[in-house]
Amino acid sequence: MNSKRLKGLAVTALVALVVMLSLGLVAIPSASAASTTTVVTESDVSRYAEDTPPLKNWVIYTPNAGTATFRSGPPTPPLGAGSLELSTPTGNDKVTVFNYHHMGTALSAIDAMGYSTYRSAGNLQQVAALNIEVDVNGSAPGGFTTLVFEPVYNTDQDAVVSGEWQTWDAFNGGNAIWWSSRTIPGAYSPNDITAPSGAPLYVSWNTILANNPNAFIVGGFGVNQGSGNPALTTAVDALTIGAGGNTTTYDFELYHVAMNKDQCKNGGWQNVTRSDGTSFKNQGDCVSYTNNHK
Domain check: are 149 and 266 in the same one? Predict the structure, then answer.
């Protein structure tokens, strides 16, 4: 990743933090622990070519010919009936799917991260990666970097295969292996040509925390299928992050499908659909669907 691209990402992340704070979209930690599942569909995202400050919590960046498509399947997703499929036809293409709701979260508070993938096309250990845009310096100047988790460097987990859903633990009790797009205390960037021989490049989450105790999320959290991954198609689902005992899992779906009768009440039936995307006539129709699924 070149310096111009990194500078653009840093500026975008900082502007994003200001924008999201002004819109009141940055997470406020709750007093009690909770686990929630949030459905994400096309209507929840904004789409840009690259490096544009977000106007929604979810942004999909697709420079060049990279694509991200909400779809049903492939069978059987870990959550619901759908997923988000990323495609990079050539080595110059890229897809980034970022959520900005967790900006301001201290890395030391994070206690869960993960996602599931289904590779339908690709070679070797290629698959979508998990990315977090962070500031490792706290309130000090500079410090922007992107932390990257890739299954290929986590050899205690499964090898990447095609044609089946696989779940990746990007926290793993703090032992998951990550790398940094920029050299930071405790981890040289693989892109740093000045790194001495034997310098630590791929290190545990705990190592990053020990060397950067004031680090926090300053931009996006999500998945990335970067340049250098030609002919790769990966469906993603069950994107998870937890902090302070509060865990959120994102379920990518074609539609906001009614799952229980409470979603039908107080006009909610107008905001949900059947699994095929068809709408309800009224609240009773919605409740009947949740009871009978037809």
Answer: no
Torsion 84-89-90-91 (CA) sign: positive
Model-level pTM? 0.86
Question: Are 171 and 233 contained in the same domain?
Answer: yes
> In this predicted model, what pLDDT tens digit does every residue of 77-136 receive, in sequence order?
999 999 999 999 999 999 999 999 999 999 999 999 999 999 999 989 999 999 999 999
Which phi-psi region, left, alpha or beta, contains residue 171 (left: φ > 0; alpha: ψ -120 to 50)? alpha
For residues 205 and 272, state if they share a domain. no
Total tally of structural domains belonging to the chain: 2
Q: What is the pLDDT of residues 58-76, one digit of tens each?
A: 999 998 999 999 999 999 9
Containing structural domain, residue 280: 258-294
